[in-house]
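Bug report (template v2)

What were you trying to do?
Predict the complex of my protein with magnesium ion.

What happened?
Run completed; filing so the output is reviewed.

Input:
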Amino acid sequence: MQYVYVALDRITERLVALKTPKNHSATKRFRRSAVVAAKVNHPNVAKTLDYVREGERRYLIEELIEGKDLKAALLVSADFLDPYLAAKVFHHLAKGVAAAHHAGVIHRDLKPTNIMVVGDYSLSELKVTDFGIAKMAGEELLEAVEGGDASMTSSQTAVGALPYMAPEAIETPKEVGAPADIWSIGAMMYHLLSGNYPFGQGLKAVPQIIAAQPPAIPVFLSSNPQFSPLASELMGLAISCLKKNPQDRPTGDQLVSRCSELCYTSSPRFRGVVRDFQFSAFGFIKTLSGDVFYHRNCVYGALPAVGEEVMFSRYVGGGADRALPVVRLKN
Ligand SMILES: Nc1ncnc2c1ncn2[C@@H]1O[C@H](COP(=O)(O)OP(=O)(O)OP(=O)(O)O)[C@@H](O)[C@H]1O
Ligand SMILES: [Mg+2]
C-alpha cells in the first residue's frame, strides 16, 4: 500500500523511515493517518515525526526501527516461541495497543508486518507501526474479498491481514472498535505460541473466523511441566481475545494487567549448535564463548538432535553455563 524508504534527515542528521502511499487517491486519508498516529506516544509504538508535502506527493516521517517485522524476526527460524519469549511479546504488544486505545486510536490492521522487533530473539524493543493507515487497508481488503480468489491471493495486504482479522472487521467493517485490535493480538499470539494460524489462511479462513470456535491447543504446550503453567496461561489469554462477541474480549488495560502478573524471564538469547547429548538426559551446546550445559527438561518443544541449531538463554553455572529454555531452530 505504501513505499517505505530509509531516509536521512539532513538537519537533525538522523535516519528516519519515510512512507508515501502508492495510490494517489489515498493521499487525503494518508494525511489523516499521520494525524491519528501522532496522537500516540508510547515506547511500544513507532513515533510519527512529521508529515510533509512535496509537489504531488505526501510523506509521513516516522522513527526508523532498525529491526525486522515480527514474522521475519521470530517465525522464520523457529516454528513457535517458547512461553517466556511469547509472554514478553504479548506484554509489549498489549502495552502499545492499550496506549493507543487510551488516546482514542484504533489500529484496525494489526498483523505481524505492522509490528517491528529489534534484537531478534533477545527482543530489546517491540513497536507497533502503521496506525491509521488501516482504513486504507480495509478498503483494499474489501476489494480483494469482493474480487474473489484471484485478487485475494494477489493482494499482499489482504493475504497478510486476513488471518488476524476479527469477525466484525469482516462482517461490519464500518463498526469496528477497539475490541477488533484485541482479537488481532489474540490471533497473533495464538500463531506465535502454536506455530499455526488460529483459523487458517486465505479465503477459507473467513467462515472459520466468523464461526469463531476456539482453536485447538497443541499438546506440546503442556507436555513439559517446567513450561506448561506459563504456556497454558498465555494460550488461555490469547483464546480469551478470540471471543466472537467483541464485548466478551478483555480490554487493552486488562491484557496489560494480566501480562504483568505473569512470571517470565527476559534474558538475552543466544544461538549455538548441539555438540552432544548423553544418557538421553543432558548435553552441551557449542557457542563461540564456550560450551553451555542443558538438560532435556529445559528443552521446550521437540528435542534437538546433535548438530542442530538451538536458541537459548544462558545462566552462570558451576563448570559450564546452563541453558534455559532451549528451543530447536529450523535448519
Ligand atoms: N518505522 C519503520 N522502520 C523500519 N522499517 C519499517 C518501518 N515501518 C515499516 N517498515 C518496514 O517496511 C515494510 C513494509 O511496510 P508496509 O506497511 O508497506 O507493508 P506491510 O505492513 O507489510 O503491509 P500493508 O502495508 O500492505 O498492510 C514492513 O514490513 C517493515 O519491515
Ligand atoms: Mg505496514
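What did the reviewer find?
The mean pLDDT is 91. The chain has three domains: 2-63, 68-260, 270-328.
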